[in-house]
Amino acid sequence: MKGMAVVQAYILIQTEVGKAASVATSVAEIKGVTAAEDVTGPYDVIVRAEARNVDELGKLVVAKVQGVDGITRTLTCPVVHL
Q: What is the pTM (predicted TM-score) of this model?
């Protein structure tokens, strides 16, 4: 999808205890996800994703990312260019 994407976002993910590594690995395999990293703090995984438009980004998050076992909550932060 590189070169075609017009919407990029960070997806902040909270997971069940002990599930961060498996969630990051699973999410990294989803088409449209460009990076997935385990982190510490209020979120357990941070994902960088891209899509052709906001609707496609929403479908990526709701239909694919949130369907990964072990995720309890997501927060999607679209990238803006100021």
A: 0.90
Question: How is 6-59 classified by DSSP, letter by letter?
Answer: -EEEEEEEEE-TT-HHHHHHHHHTSTTEEEEEE--SS-SEEEEEEESSHHHHHH
The pLDDT tens digits for 19-77 are 999 999 999 999 999 999 999 999 999 999 999 999 999 999 999 999 999 999 999 99
CA angle 68, 22, 74 (to 5 degrees): 45
Record the tokens describing residue 79, joined without a space: 């990238």
What CATH number matches the domain at 7-78, 3.40.50.720, 3.90.226.10, 3.30.70.920, 1.10.10.10? 3.30.70.920
